[in-house]
Every structure is written in structure tokens, then in C-alpha cells.
Amino acid sequence: MSSRNQSFFAAETAVTPTGPGTWSTQVSDAWNIGTNPNGGYLLASVLRAMAEISDHPDPLSVTTHFLRPGGGGEPGEVAAELIRTGRTLSTLSGSLTQGGKTRITSMAAFTDLGEVNESPITLEPPDLPPVEQCVARSGDQQGVDLPLRSRIDLRIHPDQALAGQAGDAVVSGWIRFTDDHPIDTMNLPLLADAFPPSLFGALGYIGWVPTIELTVHVRRRPAPGWIRGSFRSSDLTGNKMIEDGALWDETGALVAQSRQVGLLLTQE
Amino acid sequence: MSSRNQSFFAAETAVTPTGPGTWSTQVSDAWNIGTNPNGGYLLASVLRAMAEISDHPDPLSVTTHFLRPGGGGEPGEVAAELIRTGRTLSTLSGSLTQGGKTRITSMAAFTDLGEVNESPITLEPPDLPPVEQCVARSGDQQGVDLPLRSRIDLRIHPDQALAGQAGDAVVSGWIRFTDDHPIDTMNLPLLADAFPPSLFGALGYIGWVPTIELTVHVRRRPAPGWIRGSFRSSDLTGNKMIEDGALWDETGALVAQSRQVGLLLTQE
User: Fold this and answer.
1) Which end of chain B has fewer CB atoms within 10 angstroms, the N or the C?
2) ipTM value of the model?
3) Does B234 touch chain A if contact means CB atoms closer than 8 Å?
4) Within a 10 A sphere around the Cβ of B155, how many other Cβ atoms?
5) Nearest CA distance, B172 vs chain A (angstrom)
6) B105 in contact with A at a CB cutoff of 8 Å?
């Protein structure tokens, strides 16, 4: 239901005030992976409610615990609270509830990323073939329906596009919205959760890897164009994996870092 | 006030129930860096309150926002709430308040790390000279009093012990409690916040770097003995730095990963 002037993201993560610190939202099923909405998409509506009451415009640090899958195509209630505000930071908590059950709970610090003083300490982007030599992520590759493809255009490194192909727990590629809407800092947490699990590169398809907790640090406002991303699983034990990721804009500037702990579901 | 049978940590992070979901604690000044308690130490009492109501024993993911400095030598009130519990995870929130002001607010997932199935995907420990060739962290090196030394024995890599010496934003070394109490999963978030800022290695002393947000992922129960740690600043912009760290036990097993965003205070 995106209008000509509104991005899919803006339309499908919109929140409407219903009281002090509460908003309603309509969770779309267009961002699903299989039958569940992408976690980063669920987070986006909570982030938007936070932004409405934050004294600072850009999310700097966003931690989300995924308590239960969300319901695509169902309404939701968003709550957000400003815990503290100061000159540099606003600190907030928030949650998304559907059908009386909390689906995700988040904590975030917002700041102003418009003022930049650079240092030589940063992460360099990975080498990636040009977009047209990369491989569009399809649901077929992963054995699931991927409605998310209608919203996110993800092109994976040709050496990493098939499960087990990389031989290492890495995945990298180019990402943007299918409507080519310019990407801002509010979009980055979603894009940091839109790549397939990097474990697939080393282990092949090993079932679903639901996120337990995801923390995204936004570093800079992105320049227009494609975002490149690179993700690596750094540790796996007791069926719990850690995956580190980073996003860069087309100029090669680091725009976000992410880390998540996920649960490797073994087949019974 | 540690008894012969109780570690400094156990005695000085103890929480006493005062009502449903509330505890009292006494914040010691023995864990101070300069005039403020170490952030990881403040977190420890909140973590202990969480553990009291968690259905799982080990912290897996712990995110803390540091809203205001804590008061060493002053009493505090701890709150904790069990948000959700399931077969694999307990999810909790918590906070520490002193003098009516919230000092830190945390969100955590607990699990059982006793059951381990290993995979080849992990982080290898850094090469470190033996403990006796490393350099004890002293307050002199950093231009501050360091009461924390009475509680934490930290030996820094001899090539990284002086500010600016490493030439790179890294710091590594060996760490344990001064009372040599065996380290468990509840101690690891504190130890992940006890090294000097790795930025010092590249930039020299550049003022205080207060933590905005710290997330620690505990990976395994540590074997007895020293813990080795390695920390690196991955990005610095707009006076906000990201530092990644990891801790390994004496067998070389990865026991925790950490990431924090900190604020580089510039001198006026």
C-alpha cells in the first residue's frame, strides 16, 4: 500500500499514536521469510515509535530480543519510553505486542550522526564483484518462500550464493530497497538483519536460525546508492552462534556494525 | 568485607531482596577507576538479581546502557524482571538506581551453557607472552587512581602497556581476580569491561572514554586459571568509538565476546 511518494518502508512500518507512549501499527506480510516477518522489519516500527519521542534523530545503538515470531498481516501495538535524555544521547526502550503477546523488546540510544569528525580507525569494506555479477537471493536457494524479495533487493557474492559454497561461515553482497528509496540511518538496522545466515556458507542448509538477540550500531549517515554488507559467524557452541556483520555505503564508508546471537535449530 | 570463604566479587555484588522484583545492594568503592565505579562492576549486581529470578543459570547476552556514573561507597536499589521464560532461554530486564537516579539499565538472556556441542567455528586466542612477562596495569600509567587494582589483577602485553605504544588501537593481556577466586560465567561481563580503552594504544591518553552501551555474549563456562583478553577499536567517528573484545580461558577456549560504544570526551 505504498503511495507513489512514500517508500514501502515508510508505509509498512508506520505507527499511529493511540495514547501516551503507545502506537498502533499494521505488520505487513510482504517482509516475510517463509511464514514469519523478518526480525529487522519487526524492529523498524518500534524504532519509528522511539524516534517520535527521541530528542536525537539517529539510532546509534539498538539491541533487540526476539521473544516470539511476529505475525505478518496482523495488527500490532507498539510501546516506547524515553528513559533518559541529555545533550548527546536519548536512551529509550520499546516493544511490539501482537495478540496480547510481546514479540520483541528493544533498548536503544539515539544521537545526532550529522556532526562527523573522522579518525583513521575504521573498518574497510570487503572486495565485491559489481552488482550485476552478484546473484539475487531467491527463496529457492534456501527452500523457503521469500516474500522479503518484494521489498529488499539483495545480490550475494557469486562465490557465496549457494549454501556450503563459501566453505567458510561468511556471506557478503549488495543490498538496497526494491523501490530504490534512499537509505537512511533508520533503515540500517533492518538491512543488517536481511542477509541469509552466514553459517550456511560453511555448513550448508542447517535449518532455521532464529535470532535470540541482535545489536546494531549505526556509524554514519549513508550516501545514496547500494549498501554493501559482509557477515561472518565467529563462534558456534551449544547450538548458539554469534554472527558479526558490517554495512558500508557506495563510497566505502562504514555505516553500521551488527552482532547477533542465534539459535541453530537441529532437526529432531 | 570479603570473608575467608567468599570472594570479593560475591561479597561486593550481593543483593538482598526488599520486595517483589527489588533488591538492595551496597556499591563498593573498591572497584573504582578514578572516582567512579567500573561499569562492569555496576552491572554485576544487576546480573545477580536477574540470576535470582532466571530459570537458567548462565548469562548468554547482556546489554547495558550506562545512563549516569555510579556512586562508589553508596547504597543502591536493584530492580529485575523476568520478561519471558522458555525451554532454552530466560529473558530479563534490570536496573541499578542510586539516590533516586537510574545509573544503568540492562537487558539479558540467560541459558544453560553446561551442555556443549562444539563446532569448528570459533575465535582463536591471541599470542600473549607468559603472565610474568606482562605488565601490571597501574593507575600511574593512566594518570588516575585505580582502586580497581585491589580487586582485578590485569597484566598487559609488554608491547601495549604504555599509551601510544602499540601504534594500533589494541590492548591484550591476562586477567583474574586478586583473590584468585575461580571465574564463572557471572564474572565474565565484568572482566570484559576491565581493560583500559584500546584507543589509548593508537592515540595515547585522550581523556576518559565513558561507555554508552556494552553488550557481552558469554560463550562457554571457563576452565580454572587466568583469562586472556584482546580488545580492538574498530571504528571512531563523531567522537563515538566501537570496541570489540574477546576473552579466552587458559585452555584457549573462547568464553566471551564483547562490543561497546563509547564516547571520546574531548578536552575543552
Assistant:
1) C
2) 0.95
3) yes
4) 22
5) 18
6) yes
